[in-house]
What does this fold into?
Amino acid sequence: TEFKLDSLQHNDTVWFGAGCFWCTEAQFSQLEGVVQVLPGYMGGTVKHPTYQQVCAGNTGHVEVCEIVYNPKIISFDELLAAFFMSHDPTQLNRQGNDIGLQYRSVIFFHSTLQADKSKHYIDALNKEKAYPMPIVTKVEKAQTFYPAEDYHKNYYELNTTQPYCQYIIGPKLDKFKKVFKDKLKPQISKP
It folds into this structure.
Protein backbone atom coordinates (compact mmCIF):
# COMPACT_ATOMS: atom_id res chain seq x y z
CA THR A 1 0.00 0.00 0.00
CA GLU A 2 1.07 3.60 -0.47
CA PHE A 3 1.01 4.28 3.29
CA LYS A 4 3.38 1.39 3.98
CA LEU A 5 5.80 2.47 1.27
CA ASP A 6 5.73 6.03 2.56
CA SER A 7 6.36 4.87 6.14
CA LEU A 8 9.38 2.83 5.00
CA GLN A 9 11.03 5.80 3.23
CA HIS A 10 12.90 6.90 6.34
CA ASN A 11 14.04 3.42 7.28
CA ASP A 12 17.28 1.66 6.50
CA THR A 13 18.12 -1.98 5.78
CA VAL A 14 20.91 -4.42 6.58
CA TRP A 15 21.19 -8.18 6.06
CA PHE A 16 22.62 -10.36 8.83
CA GLY A 17 23.73 -13.96 8.54
CA ALA A 18 24.02 -15.28 12.09
CA GLY A 19 23.28 -18.98 11.78
CA CYS A 20 19.74 -20.28 11.44
CA PHE A 21 17.47 -17.49 10.23
CA TRP A 22 14.67 -18.70 12.51
CA CYS A 23 16.77 -17.67 15.53
CA THR A 24 17.85 -14.38 13.99
CA GLU A 25 14.27 -13.46 13.06
CA ALA A 26 12.95 -14.30 16.55
CA GLN A 27 15.63 -12.15 18.20
CA PHE A 28 15.68 -9.05 16.00
CA SER A 29 11.90 -8.82 15.71
CA GLN A 30 11.87 -8.06 19.47
CA LEU A 31 13.84 -4.81 19.14
CA GLU A 32 12.14 -1.42 19.28
CA GLY A 33 12.81 0.39 16.00
CA VAL A 34 13.05 -2.79 13.94
CA VAL A 35 10.18 -2.43 11.50
CA GLN A 36 10.47 -5.75 9.67
CA VAL A 37 12.57 -8.91 9.78
CA LEU A 38 12.36 -11.13 6.72
CA PRO A 39 14.24 -14.46 6.43
CA GLY A 40 15.86 -15.27 3.12
CA TYR A 41 19.01 -16.05 1.21
CA MET A 42 21.92 -13.96 -0.05
CA GLY A 43 25.47 -14.33 -1.29
CA GLY A 44 25.18 -17.31 -3.60
CA THR A 45 25.27 -18.07 -7.29
CA VAL A 46 21.84 -19.63 -7.90
CA LYS A 47 18.91 -17.38 -8.76
CA HIS A 48 15.77 -17.91 -6.65
CA PRO A 49 17.21 -20.72 -4.51
CA THR A 50 14.97 -22.97 -2.46
CA TYR A 51 15.54 -23.91 1.17
CA GLN A 52 16.43 -27.44 0.08
CA GLN A 53 19.04 -26.14 -2.38
CA VAL A 54 20.59 -23.83 0.20
CA CYS A 55 20.67 -26.62 2.83
CA ALA A 56 22.39 -28.93 0.35
CA GLY A 57 25.28 -26.46 0.43
CA ASN A 58 25.75 -26.11 -3.32
CA THR A 59 24.41 -22.59 -3.92
CA GLY A 60 26.84 -20.50 -1.84
CA HIS A 61 23.91 -18.70 -0.20
CA VAL A 62 23.69 -17.77 3.45
CA GLU A 63 20.54 -17.93 5.55
CA VAL A 64 20.08 -14.22 6.32
CA CYS A 65 17.50 -11.91 7.74
CA GLU A 66 16.69 -8.65 6.05
CA ILE A 67 16.44 -6.17 8.92
CA VAL A 68 14.44 -3.02 8.11
CA TYR A 69 14.90 -0.49 10.89
CA ASN A 70 14.19 3.11 11.81
CA PRO A 71 17.57 4.73 12.57
CA LYS A 72 15.80 7.44 14.61
CA ILE A 73 14.77 4.73 17.09
CA ILE A 74 17.57 2.15 16.87
CA SER A 75 21.03 2.92 15.56
CA PHE A 76 23.16 0.75 13.31
CA ASP A 77 25.65 0.53 16.19
CA GLU A 78 22.92 -0.95 18.41
CA LEU A 79 22.03 -3.45 15.68
CA LEU A 80 25.70 -4.45 15.44
CA ALA A 81 25.82 -5.00 19.21
CA ALA A 82 22.71 -7.20 18.92
CA PHE A 83 24.19 -9.07 15.94
CA PHE A 84 27.40 -9.96 17.77
CA MET A 85 25.49 -10.98 20.88
CA SER A 86 22.92 -13.05 18.98
CA HIS A 87 25.37 -15.74 17.83
CA ASP A 88 28.97 -16.92 18.14
CA PRO A 89 30.89 -14.91 15.53
CA THR A 90 34.01 -17.05 16.04
CA GLN A 91 32.50 -20.24 14.59
CA LEU A 92 33.39 -20.71 10.94
CA ASN A 93 30.48 -21.89 8.77
CA ARG A 94 28.41 -23.09 11.69
CA GLN A 95 26.36 -22.18 14.73
CA GLY A 96 26.25 -25.00 17.24
CA ASN A 97 24.90 -28.11 15.53
CA ASP A 98 23.90 -26.16 12.39
CA ILE A 99 26.89 -26.78 10.13
CA GLY A 100 27.53 -25.58 6.60
CA LEU A 101 28.39 -22.56 4.47
CA GLN A 102 24.76 -21.40 4.71
CA TYR A 103 25.27 -20.73 8.45
CA ARG A 104 28.34 -18.50 8.11
CA SER A 105 28.53 -15.26 10.06
CA VAL A 106 28.24 -12.32 7.67
CA ILE A 107 27.06 -8.72 7.49
CA PHE A 108 25.81 -7.71 4.05
CA PHE A 109 26.00 -3.92 3.78
CA HIS A 110 24.66 -1.45 1.22
CA SER A 111 26.53 1.68 2.29
CA THR A 112 30.08 2.71 3.10
CA LEU A 113 28.94 3.75 6.56
CA GLN A 114 27.58 0.25 7.31
CA ALA A 115 30.75 -1.37 5.95
CA ASP A 116 33.10 0.90 7.90
CA LYS A 117 31.18 0.56 11.17
CA SER A 118 30.99 -3.23 10.80
CA LYS A 119 34.74 -3.54 10.18
CA HIS A 120 35.50 -1.14 13.04
CA TYR A 121 33.29 -3.15 15.40
CA ILE A 122 35.04 -6.42 14.45
CA ASP A 123 38.49 -4.83 14.88
CA ALA A 124 37.55 -3.40 18.28
CA LEU A 125 36.10 -6.71 19.54
CA ASN A 126 39.19 -8.60 18.38
CA LYS A 127 41.53 -6.03 19.93
CA GLU A 128 39.63 -6.22 23.25
CA LYS A 129 39.68 -10.03 23.04
CA ALA A 130 35.93 -10.01 23.65
CA TYR A 131 35.83 -13.63 22.48
CA PRO A 132 38.33 -16.43 23.20
CA MET A 133 38.89 -16.87 19.45
CA PRO A 134 39.17 -14.33 16.60
CA ILE A 135 35.93 -13.21 14.94
CA VAL A 136 35.35 -14.85 11.54
CA THR A 137 32.40 -12.65 10.52
CA LYS A 138 32.69 -11.45 6.93
CA VAL A 139 31.61 -7.98 5.82
CA GLU A 140 30.36 -8.14 2.23
CA LYS A 141 28.50 -5.91 -0.19
CA ALA A 142 24.81 -6.81 -0.36
CA GLN A 143 23.73 -8.90 -3.30
CA THR A 144 20.30 -9.96 -4.47
CA PHE A 145 18.10 -10.91 -1.52
CA TYR A 146 15.76 -13.83 -2.09
CA PRO A 147 12.95 -14.06 0.50
CA ALA A 148 12.59 -17.51 2.04
CA GLU A 149 9.51 -19.63 1.54
CA ASP A 150 6.43 -18.48 3.49
CA TYR A 151 6.64 -21.26 6.09
CA HIS A 152 9.93 -19.77 7.37
CA LYS A 153 8.33 -16.42 8.21
CA ASN A 154 7.55 -15.96 11.92
CA TYR A 155 8.73 -19.54 12.36
CA TYR A 156 9.33 -19.35 16.10
CA GLU A 157 6.03 -17.59 16.82
CA LEU A 158 4.10 -20.17 14.80
CA ASN A 159 5.99 -23.26 16.02
CA THR A 160 6.86 -22.70 19.70
CA THR A 161 6.13 -26.32 20.62
CA GLN A 162 8.48 -27.73 17.97
CA PRO A 163 11.63 -29.20 19.67
CA TYR A 164 14.11 -26.93 17.81
CA CYS A 165 12.12 -23.90 18.95
CA GLN A 166 11.91 -25.12 22.56
CA TYR A 167 15.52 -26.21 23.01
CA ILE A 168 17.48 -23.93 20.67
CA ILE A 169 15.56 -20.76 19.81
CA GLY A 170 13.74 -20.32 23.14
CA PRO A 171 16.87 -20.20 25.34
CA LYS A 172 18.71 -17.95 22.85
CA LEU A 173 15.72 -15.60 22.75
CA ASP A 174 15.47 -15.49 26.56
CA LYS A 175 19.16 -14.54 26.83
CA PHE A 176 18.77 -11.94 24.07
CA LYS A 177 15.78 -10.36 25.85
CA LYS A 178 17.72 -10.12 29.12
CA VAL A 179 20.67 -8.37 27.49
CA PHE A 180 18.51 -5.98 25.44
CA LYS A 181 15.67 -5.51 27.95
CA ASP A 182 15.83 -1.70 27.57
CA LYS A 183 15.54 -1.95 23.77
CA LEU A 184 12.57 -4.32 23.45
CA LYS A 185 9.26 -3.49 21.84
CA PRO A 186 6.40 -3.05 24.30
CA GLN A 187 4.66 -6.39 24.80
CA ILE A 188 1.04 -6.45 23.69
CA SER A 189 -1.03 -8.63 25.95
CA LYS A 190 -3.04 -11.24 24.10
CA PRO A 191 -6.65 -11.95 25.12
Observations:
- The beta strands are 12-18, 34-42, 62-69, 94-95, 98-99, 105-109, 138-141, 146-147.
- The chain has a mean pLDDT of 92.
- DSSP finds seven helices and eight strands in the chain.
